[in-house]
Amino acid sequence: MTELRLAADAPAAAPVSALREGMQQAGARPRLGAYLGQLWDRRHFIASYTRANNEVMYSRSFLGQLWQVLTPLLNAAVYYLVFGLLLHTSRGTPNFVAFLVIGIFVFHFIQQSVMRGSKSIANNQGLIRSLHFPRAALPISTTGQTCIQLMVSMVVMVPIVLLTGERPALRWLLVVPDLVLVTSFALGAAFVIARISAHIPDTTALLPFVLRSWLYLSGIFYSIEHITKHNPSIKILLELNPGAEYVELARAALIQDANVQLRIWAFATAWAVVALVGGLVFFWRAEETYARG
Amino acid sequence: MPVAETQRAIRRPPPPEPGAPETVVVEDVHLIYRVAGRRRKRNEASGALKRLLTRTEQNIREIHAIKGATFTTRRGESVGLIGPNGSGKSTLLRAIAGVMPPAQGRIYTEGAPALLSVGAVLIPEMSGERNVLLGCLAMGMTREEAEDAYDGIVEFSGLEDAISLPMSTYSSGMSARLRFAIATARTHEVLLIDEALATGDAQFRRRSEKRIRELCDAAGTIFLVSHGLQVIRDTCNRVIWLEKGEMVMDGDTDEVIDAYEDRYDPDARTRRQQMIDEGAVSDDGGFGGGDVTGGEM
After folding, report:
1. Which of A152, B67, B134, B188 is 20 to 30 A distant from A90 in Cα terms?
2. pTM of the entire structure?
3. Is B32 on the interface with A (CB under 8 A)?
4. Given CB atoms, is A10 within the 8 Å cutoff of chain B?
5. CB distance from B256 to chain A under 8 Å?
6. Per the CB < 8 Å rule, is B25 touching A133?
7. Which residues of A are less than 8 Å from B138 in CB distance?
8. Is residue B48 part of a domain?
9. Tens-place pLDDT, residues A144-195
């Protein structure tokens, strides 16, 4: 019984001042700079995990990867049927098919990023609980997956736009900065929604309605310009909607008769920067709470 | 009996030098689960609405899982946590892993502890192969390091035949083996094992015990939660006995386990003595034997 000691008599643990260097408080989050460094160290993990997830996603379906192309195409077909042919929201819009397809593909990317970002923490609890890594790697990875799908849908989109009678022009290159901005915005949004839904599980139930409403307000199958002709204040409001901005910019780049004012570029850039920086900080501030139960 | 005891003493990692550096410092830690305790009207929407409107706090029940734990571990220690179900063993590990923030008190650790627990599959839809590589990358290895570690991990897990199948098809024992192999491919200052070895077979158990000893030799600290007291005897050089969230005893492995057995299973020692006398003790008897459980919480 010599070495045995009752817990009640156990000597108090070393006071904080006596702690060795290199010890850290369990569960404490690293400073932002160190956190970004850790994220950079995990870049291979993020890349591999993104690719692997993308391959796995459709592995159980018969058509497999083909769905990456089919889903946005079917979406475009349905919206064309309903809004173009039945409801005629196309009035006043030159080249409605291209207008619709670009709108759907770009907005679908934002929607998917938010949707998958909201599940990135809950769906990876096994990984989060067993291994230490900066959790921001997960929303980055889910956004990366939607980014790959965006690239695939771009490959589909270009021939469609050509078929509708557009001709390639130098301004088509403006699509590239627009995609960079929208990706940055989508990543920021994914960070925000990932933290919110990690703490409020009801978010996943509510999110489809929010995203749907956003879709309706973003001028995907109608022209904001056209319906707000007599109502400039509503036009400004709708223009401040980042979803509408990124869509408008892509259209202006690819469709000859679509024009966009320079201030939309300014708004879109501001949204992208604010969303990414704000989103990352917002997500990081709850870093220690993402492992559950 | 002396022979068997000697064998055990050899298998178990030696206790650390007295002045070895601390690896985990737990200072008067209290851990509390807050549960929305809806005892009645569980699924009624009107009830949910009422709760939302009135915002009563009385629906939150607090479960005091750990009531003031204090201890320090040093490099080279392998600590067994024993106690009945619901005594707070797994909760304590989660807190050390940084997964659950203490309600009171502080925990300091060296490095980032890795937690291995039963049922935590890494990425179920992906093949074992992918899980190995992704697990290594997530632990911060470079791509080359991960590829170098790959063969060793697969060999250690003994899953060469199943490694290309999705992890969701693995049995709990197989996935525990793979996770253990992945997590121990990197040296961790602190490794927390929560019943993760319990589902492995005898051969894997021997291998993992060897790996645990190696990790202790490499100046790591291991925490092991298990109901298999024999496993604890074989692999731990210190044992903490928890009971309803309080530390009952903390000390030398044999002393604490003997006291624990006297409390819960007074016949265990006699049975073991009989088995040793009959020469029936085998290396593999650990996981089933000595299983002592108290009341569920």
Report:
1. A152
2. 0.78
3. no
4. yes
5. yes
6. no
7. 42, 45, 49, 127, 131, 133, 137
8. no
9. 999 998 998 888 888 889 988 888 888 999 999 999 999 999 999 999 999 9
Answer yes or no: is B238 within a domain: yes
- Are B2 and B127 within one domain? no
Q: What is the DSSP letter of A62?
A: S
Q: Bridge-partner residues for B239, per DSSP?
A: B80, B251
* Cβ(B242)–Cβ(B70) below 8 Å: no
What CATH number does the domain containing B81 carry? 3.40.50.300
Q: A49, B134: Cβ pair inside 8 Å?
A: yes
- On the CB side of A140, CA atoms within 13 Å amount to 20
Q: Which amino acid is at B78?
A: S
**Is A132 in contact with B21 (Cβ distance < 8 A)?**
no
- Residue A276: its pLDDT value, please? 97
Contact between chains at B183 and A131 (C-beta distance less than 8 A): yes
B170 shares a domain with B204? no
* Pairwise CB contact (< 8 Å): A131 & B138: yes
Residue A85 or B93, more confident: B93
pLDDT of residue A21: 67
Q: Using the beta-carbon criterion (under 8 Å), do A25 and B22 form an inter-chain contact?
A: no
Chain B nearest C-alpha distance from A23 (Å): 4
pLDDT tens per residue across span B65-89: 899 999 999 988 999 999 998 899 9
Which of the listed residues B162, B187, B212 is the one where a domain comes to its end? Answer: B187
Same domain, B85 and B199: yes
Residues B206 and B79 grouped into a single domain:
yes
In a domain, B108, yes or no: no
Same domain, B177 and B257: no
Structural domain total, chain B: 2
Print the domain residue range for B84: 1-22+74-97+189-297
User: Do B182 and B238 share a domain, yes or no?
Assistant: no
- Single out the residue of B280, B283, B288, B277 nearest to residue B2, CA to CA: B277
Average pLDDT, chain B: 79
- At A241, the amino acid letter reads N
Say which amino acid occupies B190: V
Same-domain pairing of B149 and B203: no
Give the SS3 label for residue B291. Answer: strand
Per-residue confidence (pLDDT) for residue A96, from 0 to 100: 85
Give the mean pLDDT of B194-214: 78
Torsion of Cα atoms, A79 then A82 then A87 then A89, to 10°: 10
**Residue ranges of B 98-117 with Cβ closer than 8 A to chain A:** 98-101, 106-117
Interface touch A45/B126, C-beta < 8 Å: no
Last residue of a domain, one of B141, B161, B187: B187
Nearest CA in chain A to B125: A56
Give the closest-approach CA distance of A261 to chain B in angstroms.
44
Give the model's confidence band at A245: pLDDT under 50 very low, under 70 low, under 90 confident, else very high: very high
Same domain, B155 and B209: no
In this prediction, residue B10 carries a pLDDT of: 52
Between these two residues, B19 and B177, which has the higher pLDDT value? B177
Single-letter residue type at B44:
E
B6-9, Cβ contacts within 8 angstroms, sequence gap of 24 or more: B8/B233, B8/B234
Question: Measured between beta carbons, which residues in chain B are less than 8 angstroms from residue A10?
Answer: 70-71, 247, 250
> Does A130 sit within 8 Å of B179, measured CB to CB?
yes
Task: Give CA–CA dist B20/B220, Å, rounded.
Answer: 11
Distance, CA of B252 to CA of B248 (rounded, Å): 13
Residue B31 lies in a domain: no
